[in-house]
Amino acid sequence: MTATTADPPPAPPVPRRRGVELALLVGAVLIAVLGYLAVGLGKHHALPPDAAVYGAGLGALALLAHLVVRLRAPYADPLLLPIAVLLNGLGLVLIYRLDLETPGDSAAPTQLVWSTLGAALFIAVVAFLPDHRVLQRYAYLSVATALVLLIVPIFFPAVNGAKIWIRFGGFSFQPGEFAKVLLAVFFAAYLATNRNALAYTGRRLWRRLPWLQLPTGRVLGPLVAIWLLSVVVLVLERDLGTSLLFFGLFVIMLYVATGRTGWIAVGLALAAVGAFAVGSLEPHVHSRVQDWLDPYASINAGRGPGQLAQSLFAFAAGGLTGTGLGLGHSILIGFAAKSDFILATAGEELGLVGLTAIFLLYALLVARGLRTGLSLRDPFGRLLAVGLSAILGLQVFVIAGGVMGLIPLTGMAMPFLAQGGSSVVTNWAIVALLMRLSDSARRPRPEPSRGAGAGLDGDGDDRHDNRTEAGS
Amino acid sequence: MTRYIRRIAAFFLLLLAALLVNSARIQLVEADSLDRNPANRRATVARYAEPRGPILVDGKAVTGSRDTRQPLRYERTYTQGPLYAPVTGYASQTYGTTLLENAEDALLSGTDPMLAPFPFWHEITRSRQPGGQVATTIKGAMQRAAYDGLAGRRGAVAAIEPFSGRILALVSSPSYDPGLLSGTGTAVTDAWTRLTGDSAQPMLDRAIRQTYPPGSAFKIVTAAAALDAGTVTDVAAPTDIEEPYVLPGTATVLPNEAEGCDRASLEYAIRWSCNSVMAGLGVRTGLTGMLDTARKFGFNDSGLRIPSGVAASHFDTEMSDDQLALSSIGQFDTRATPLQMAMVAAAVANGGELKYPYLVDRTLAADGRVVSRTGQRTYGRTMNPLTANRLRRMMIDTVEDGTATNAAIDGATVGGKTGTAQHGVGNSGLPYAWFIAWAQAGNSGRPAVAVAVVVEDAAADRADISGGGDAAPIARAVMEKALGR
């Protein structure tokens, strides 16, 4: 789309691909409903009586979201919504399936309510947020809200050792989940404004290493302060998964904004120091690191398998093609089977084939998000797209790697799949923002009016970007 | 920025690759070893996911299954647990399996490849078949008669069909309910602690897993050896073995309970259970001859399976003459299981040919298709047919006019031999009362049953314990059921 000439030729119509989206949505809803039926057949040799209602509900939500997208974001990426619906539907199936093993504690209805809320938020964002650049104005409001959200749970009692929940009435939610989106908005806005200062000013620490250059404290200071504050709060609340996520998000966005490899080196070094300190000082984390180093230690000590060993047993039991929905025994993992360890159920009952499919769905989601970042022209939008994709990607890797023994376990929710209201709602919000961003990215640009705006943001790096895009 | 976003994309691609490689590692490469990890309960869960196949007596199930709705879903139940415990054993989710539950576990739990409709069916479908059925040779009425006859006293009964080797009754007393051990949890561990700690040893299968000194009941073996070896040629002729009998090479006198044993004939010695004559005949027959005959009856065979393993009965292979003398009357180191002594009686009844004892008549798939049938097998020829005929006569005499008149049944031919076994240091323990017998209906060409009864009643007055008084009535009750009365 290099429509920079003064007299544009009649542009070929930009494909909107809404039909593709609809077809994929029908497929996604169908897969979820069939999964629901399979659970009933596998577990009770009978079709679940409420399958029709369930399918109709999910279908109606998907259809409504699709209609709003058609009206308000017609150029948005056609893959994002179907992937979100499929993952959310699959998550509901897995939670419903695990509910059958714990008769006193059914989580699927609650999850369905939260999913509906999430979809409603998606619809609201797509319908009422005209342009993502509006968000740039609210950068400082975002960060203030994020910090408040992060700090509030300190005043609520801890659950399972972590003070990350707010409870009122029968509901509870994790404000930290929403905070990560707000923080991504702030990082994107701040970095978009200050990235030149960050990239090109400051002192070089050592002449031999040109990439190791510190920007001035005036520019870097506020950013680091806010990031440090949130990480410290999270560490105090013992939400180490989210603090790790914030850390990764910060490093990735800083790198994309400045292009300085040094940031990654510094980030990794800091992460290593921090991880070592927390891992050896904090008993809860220390035990998880021990668990990761030897998942079978408790078995050898005669205390039976721990959660991680149970999780590995579940994955192994799945093998290549899985046991089939409803026919596995991942409930042996224990109390976190529906939340942190839901992927083990997928691994056991859908096998390596199903697990690979799920990973590829996430990868596709992240890839489409990054692709949106590449196609956008304004630095804020690009950084926001990268940040939101990074939140999803990092979260998937950290939790999947954790439950499969690749890295030490940190308590985090598998996006869309795991039980957890605030998580589902937040992920719907992320997808909604990505939809909005991709709509801007793929929308044919009304050139004259937009040119001036782009010129204001433009700098050497952007011009370079344009060249690459023209070439690709 | 484009370049950096691309690099971030490459970074996420790397993370994706790490996840995919790692899941392939766990789910394909390490899956087998993780599946086999003893701490992994999946195999156990799968094992109890379906009801266990039943064990049948007289074609009716004496076991069942209870759906607990727990992860280990089906628990074993026993309809008449204590009665059949020495046959079935237990199938416990906590303590494993014993006896038939153990020997036929693959069939009962459905993993036996023979249950599959086609070869390699399991390998292809990775499925289990419904548990198969095990039909036993036990006759419920005989089992009940033996169990009621013991009436909770410590002891055991084994009954065999002589011409086939089918085990018709196998009772151990006191018994226990194997159903108490079926599941998991504290009720089960408590029951286990109580049962294993009980001084009466209710979980000991006395019929096949406990050996006792057989006492005078062993004299049948000694008589067979003496006749086969030619030590005695005329059963009615007086022997030159004097009373009192002094153990060879010692000054110890072997006492007789019976009258008239001085230089008595073999016939008389069996009928009235003369220690002196039988000890002397054993010594004359010699260690080789005695050992040879004892082995033919099944002594010193540690490989006997019915299909549950049977404890080896024992006859020493190296002995001095005084020890051989004691062994010949079932004392010293000689020990036998009740099943072994039933085999002795069965061999005599069956003309000297001993059939291999067996407890499983046939196994069936859940749908009733026969999976396997146990064929009759000859264990061996224990003695000449002529010797067997003479022994039969002597045992009949013992019942008609001897120590075993308590075993007589109207209208049937019954042969028997009593035994009272001393044991303990210096014979300080209460003696065991033995009785071995066989019975043949008057109109039948072959014996219907051979039985061995042992009663080790610690509560009884010492003088009252005798094979004829305590054990013979139980044997008679069992034989009456075998004869259909």
Indicate the structural class of chain B: alpha+beta
Uncertain spans of chain B: none
**Cα radius of gyration of chain A in angstroms:** 23 Å
The CATH class assignment of the domain at 215-360 and 376-482 in chain B is Alpha Beta
Sequence of secondary-structure elements of chain A: HHHHHHEEHEEHHHHHHHHHHH
So how many helices of chain B?
17
Assembly state of the chains shown: heterodimer
Largest sheet of chain A: 2 strands, antiparallel
List the strand order in the largest sheet of chain B: 2-1-7-13-14
Largest interface: A-B, 53 and 35 residues
Biggest β-sheet description of chain B: 5 strands, mixed
Note the beta-strand portion of chain B: 15-25%
Read across the widest sheet of chain A, the strand sequence of neighbours is 1-2
Mean pLDDT of chain A: 83
- Give the termini separation of chain A: 11 Å
Terminus-to-terminus distance of chain B: 101 Å
Residue fraction in strands of chain A = under 5%
Secondary-structure arrangement, i.e. CATH architecture of the domain at 215-360 and 376-482 in chain B:
3-Layer(aba) Sandwich
Overall pLDDT level of chain B:
88
Domain Penicillin binding protein A dimerisation (chain B): 52-134
Domain Penicillin-binding protein transpeptidase (chain B): 155-480
GO molecular function, one term (chain B): penicillin binding
Organism (chain B): Streptomyces paludis
